Amino acid sequence: MRPLPADEIRGNWATLLLPIQADEGIDHGCLADEIDYLVAAGVDGIYSNGTAGEFYTQTEDEFDRISTLLAERCERGGIPFQIGASHMSPQLSLSRIRRAVKLKPSAIQVILSDWKTLNDDEVVDCLQRFAAAAQPVGLVLYNPPHAKRVLEPPIYARLRQAVPELVGIKVADGDDDWYAQMRQHAAGLSIFVPGHHLIHGLPKGAHGAYSNVACLQPIGAQKLVELAQTDYERALGIETRLQAFMTQHIAPYIQQQGYANQAVDKLLAGVGNWAEVGTRLRWPYRWIDSADAERLRPIARAAVPELFTCENGY
């Protein structure tokens, strides 16, 4: 697969979710089936080893096996893919980047070094070293709200100059002022926002999502993004109902019950029931019981039936 420039990193990208067995091993057969489903779904791209992919729990052998499996399946299916080479240790990130480059991904995702918050100069230095290791593949900075250092819009102007290999970012979106600042300071970067905010963000400057909606239903998420190109108001209405479902039924797991974001992503996959992923996380994180997914399944289908009847189109 060829490296993608910023203007070609767009749309609905689906994450790999690790099928974790009772002994905390990875079910690689189920993982291969999951990738094949996503390829057949025709998503805009697939990425590995984000937060929902539990990159922080993987041994280096597991990282290599997951990355290789993704590369082989996506090359065969002609689907762009990104490899998350993130690690809390910058030295291990560099090692993962160097190995990921050999698999010829469309881009490589990284996080900022994580134990101690980096200052601005250290952020630049960190990404420059990562970018040098990734050549000729571009970098996507994975900077969600739970990152140790969440970057504010003005620093992206400096990063664009200092790290021209940076092609995209994953961030939480904000209000209209935030979007205005991002249009000014992050122009030229592909800006990815939360999946259930993407349709609202498209006219403001969002380009895509590493999508929690794809966790819920990959085909439905893809069709929703495509619908926005031809009938934006209808797509906006669907997303508004989806946001209400997320606020009422999903957000409380994080806000009141203290589950990690990755637990919620796996819950969404259980609600969608499209792959044998399961809701189990690797130790030490708590996961949400699969019975909760079964309980929420009819509620989600009533709230946004379009996501689950998507095989027949909208």
Main attributes of the structure:
globular; 12 helices; 48% helix; alpha/beta; 8-stranded parallel β-sheet
Describe this structure in words.
By secondary structure, the chain is of the alpha/beta class. The two termini are 31 Å apart. Helix 5 (154-162) links the parallel strand 5 and strand 6. The protein has helices at 28-41, 60-77, 90-101, 120-134, 154-162, 176-185, 198-201, 212-216, 218-230, 232-255, 261-272, 290-303, and strands at 11-15, 45-48, 81-84, 107-110, 139-142, 166-170, 190-192, 208-210. 49% of the residues are buried. The protein has an eight-stranded parallel beta sheet with strand order 7-6-5-4-3-2-1-8. It has one domain (6-312): Alpha-Beta Barrel (TIM Barrel). The longest helix has 24 residues, at 232-255. Helix 1 (28-41) runs parallel beside helix 2, helix 5 (154-162) packs parallel to helix 6 and helix 10 runs antiparallel to helix 12 (290-303). Helices cover 48% and strands 10% of the residues.
